[in-house]
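#struct-help
A.M.: can someone run this one for me? Single chain, 439 residues.
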Amino acid sequence: MNVLLSAYACNPRFGGEDGFGFNWTWQTARQGHRVWCITNPSGRAGIEEFMARHGQELNPGQLQFLFVDVPAWVQFLHRWQFGVYLHYGVWQYRAWRAARQLSQSVEFDYVHHATYGSLQMGSWMWRLGKPLVFGPVGGGQRAPAAFRRFIPDWFKSETMRNVIGWLLVTFDPNVRQTLRHASVVLATNSETATLARRLGARRVELFLDSGLPEDFFPPAYPPRPATPELRLLWLGRLFPRKGLYLILEALSQVDPRIPFHLTIIGDGPLRDSLPAQIARYGLQNRVTWRGAVPWQQVRAAYQTHDAFLFGSLRDSFASQFLEAMATGLPIITLDHQGAHDFIPATAACKVPVTTPEATAQALARAVEHYYRQPAERVAAGQAGFAFAATHTWALRARRLQALLRRILPQPAEPAVAAPATTRQSPVAQAWPSLPTYPR
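D.P.: on it. Structure tokens below:
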């Protein structure tokens, strides 16, 4: 089939949205389709680097990139937060115009809007009149208001986000039109799926946004040597919504007879206040903050700890979960949003999100349980390892293609490639060996 893929963020050098956009592009081509990817020039250097190294892995013309820019004044405003939204909106409009022109010479079988994965921002690509795959997208999840004391910038990061999201879905007709015209909306959690259906989506499927390359995995489940201390790992960007302060409060309530140590890896807005918070909870001898570290050290941390402790208060999912499971770590987290929908119950201790006091106590009990039950810890690590193995990027692409075969009209015979009209050559790479950290 001929596939048009819209990926505002698309760069094989990075993880997150950039990695998502590139992997959907590359893996769709790997499935044998002809792919035209419209993307932002910011990822051009990374794409061309991999093109030079791996372009021969695909047939000539099988994967082509069209880099769509924005006016200089829009690019200038991108340095401020409001300019980020403006940049994306203007880019979407210009990408649609480029796609409309391209569709005059190429008969596309479907269009896939891959990034950004935001339901509230919609996609201009429904206007092409082709079957549209929208997502995976998040945006329906919210941080529980009862936990606002753990998010110091609540008004800025949560209240304003919710207001802007409401304004977009209420007054921007593009959002509802995207959902109503999409052949399928891929939602990264149940909250987003519910919102998409309420706004008129015809078909919604839960679909994880994260994936891993095959070479990320060790050859077999990696057992941990027994140690007298339970080694816990927290990894991510130091944003308040990631719930690190909730984790610290929970650890302060762990039975003092339980020997544990938490390693925090990451940097971000909480960097200045974090040492004081660790001291406030009396955890100076039980918590080590390492800041941002190279990927090799992140990988070593996954392999030298006993459990992954992460309680984000608002997340579509967290790719760290998948990475932790792929290295055999059992999970301790909150039972909501993407973690509720995708992490197997057998791979984790997922605690209810009720009140801050009850949830912190439940997290503390989960830490105590994993210390006292090492066999259950191993079993959970094995279950997570098996689950992560089903979410390589190659398998995820096959899963999407299997879904599309059920819901999209199939061409009677393989599509013939159109002459290459874009400036780029094919590029091939499943995922960079060194993702960008912290996230």
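A.M.: thanks! The two ends are 35 Å apart (CA to CA).
D.P.: also worth noting: Confidence is low (pLDDT under 50) at residues 414-439.
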